[in-house]
Amino acid sequence: MDPTDPDPDRSDDDMTAALSALPVEEIPPVDVDDLEDDYTAAGSLGADPGAEIDVATDLEQELLSALMWAPLAIARAVAAQLDTKHFWVPQHARIFAAIDAVATNAAPSPALVNAQLMATGGQGELSARSAQKTMLALVAPTHRPIAVAAQVPYLAIAVIDGWYRRGYTALLTAMDQRRREAPIEELAEHWAQLTGYQQRAESDWLTRRQALTEVER
Prior knowledge:
Elements: H1 14-20, H2 49-67, H3 72-79, H4 90-103, H5 110-120, H6 128-139, H7 152-181, H8 187-213
């Protein structure tokens, strides 16, 4: 299944199907040890995982499409405030990393981004043909126009907002697991640890969000 297909058949998406079949309380909880670097996980999805994945996928597609056609100044300023961790779809994270690398020297373009992916093995586990299909869906989407340059910072803000919201869900899932399983005398320590993660994430989110609102368009 190609997650960037403009009209994906999500019945073939094992992850989505598995999550959608589970009541929210049965979604595997996040391990607190994984929250430091990966602020998203299965436990970071809410009551309707399928819908959340669809929204995140569409938003990431539109942002990446716009970045590949954006002027160099906007592409650099926006890419500077994003990280691969903000993307739900792994292939989108790889494509963003390629866009960011290209923007250090030149305005991104589909051909340059594709060359960067090929040169660095950024296709990941996907075949070359599947990676090409992903790029085509971004470069020439059939279900929407490509966003104009002025929209790029707002799309980026929406992407990091989604990451932060998923992070909060992950923290609550982790704390609920501790509430049920940890000795009562350890609960305060777990809460303090999770609060520390939340505060660092909030500071990161606010800093990036503010910078994106100041990008000149």
